[in-house]
Known about the structure:
By secondary structure, the protein is α/β, with parallel strands linked by helices. The protein has a single domain (26-243), classed as Aldolase class I (TIM Barrel).
Amino acid sequence: MALPIRTRLRRVTASEPTFTRPAAPMIAPSILSADFARLADEAEAVASADWLHVDVMDAHFVPNLTLGLPVVQSLLKATDIPLDCHLMIEDPARWAPPYAEAGAYNVTFHAEATYDPVGVARDIRAAGAKAGLSVKPNTPIEPYLEILRDFDTLLVMSVEPGFGGQSFIPSVLEKAKAVRRLVDSGDLRLVVEIDGGINADTIEQAAEAGIDCFVAGSAIYNTADPGATVEKLRSQAAAARSPHHAAH
Ligand code: DX5
Ligand code: ZN
């Protein structure tokens, strides 16, 4: 499903409740690759992470099934790391706001899952969270550029959503670059996030494309020291960020 292409973007005004670019690259470990029976410990293992990425899958929007609101509510009590909830579910208008009400920091849903992304974003924000829009690898970004004014984060999927451990799809970086340009020019203000196949071999090209926040599941949790891997990935991304993209 694609929304109609709108006219020129108006500039974002300073009063709009959106993010400014983070000074350092953000790392969001995905607990999809963690031990679900030990989630509190697995969060503690990445204590220096910027966000903890929580993949909610409903076995309808994606073929896989993971966890839902009760687990997020428990996780919120178990960690101080802001939760970045990635809802790979149908009917986000119904199911997304409760994650915001529960205390998730950022609630992202899929553009492909609703005809009213702006309405869902409004409800998420009204419930006290940042609102994120995600696009699958084959979903073009152009039809959504105008409505990104109503979001705090854009999550560019660099694998087909549903499973961890898949290979990075580099062509999605064109979408990230297009949005980065609009953020740099002041036409949009939001965090550009990427999810899928991010590891030591792929994070640099994503950083060069202007990504602010990097989700990584298997690359972090399948290592002996997940906390050290967070630091390594962040340093790698920082070094690869071009001076043009430096925070100012
Ligand atoms: C996939 C999920 C990702 C997943 C990424 O649908 O949205 O967050 O955990 O896993 P890796 O980093 O292993 O590709
Ligand atoms: Zn995810």
